[in-house]
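Subject: two folds for Thursday's group meeting

Dear M.,

Sorry for the delay on this. The cluster queue was jammed most of the week, so I only got both jobs back this morning. I'm pasting them in the order they finished. Each block is the input sequence followed by the predicted structure tokens. Could you check whether the formatting survives your parser before we put anything on slides? The first protein is the one we discussed after the seminar.
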Amino acid sequence: MELFGYDIQTIYLFGLVVSGVCTLLLILFGDFLDGLFPDSFLSPTLVFSFLTFLSASGYIFEKILSFTSLITFLIALVLAFILVTLLNVFVLIPLSSAEESIAYKEEDLKGRIGRVITSIPVDGFGEIVIEGISGTIAKSAKSFNNEPIPYDEKVLVIDIKESVVYVLPYQSMNQY
């Protein structure tokens, strides 16, 4: 079959090359495009993946199957949709949430409860550890009220200045 004066296999091959070049450009300039399309359903990664899968499967099916070009196109279209959906659900979404879960801001530590692993002397520094879903964070600590805090005491993070957390001994509501 011919479309616009070109053989359909040539069109599929041309689409594969163009989508491959666009994918390469997406790798190089992806951050810029993410700024243009923030949190869009039609992300450039999904669009170019769909076009690549459609072109590649259409070209291969035209070569090996003896169906009409319309049926071959519909099969390639369904296959590309399924592959892009699987790519999005099992690769892209988990990657985007994994990126966010391992990063933290120091300001996020305010209000968290930790445990002293190096006792904090009066007007001195010690060390605390804060455990959470994203892992364990060890930080230098200083007493907020300049009072000593012994080893293995639970503490509440009050403030953070220059990567040092200022803490108070933590009394849970069950003690009252």
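Second protein, same layout:
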Amino acid sequence: MIPQLDYAFYVWTSYGLFAVVMAWQFIQPRLRRRRIVAELREELALQSGNYDDPDA
């Protein structure tokens, strides 16, 4: 048997896990920024009195 094929599952699993972690590292700050900006806009609207509650 070819020795390189013994480790193929481990290698490709490692590559896949690396890709998932890198994607999360790319996406997570953008999601956090979007949430923080929305909270800041809401806080500013509440302080300025220009807040229309969509639930009311």
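Two things I noticed about the second structure. The chain has a mean pLDDT of 86. The two ends are 70 Å apart (CA to CA).

Cheers,
T.
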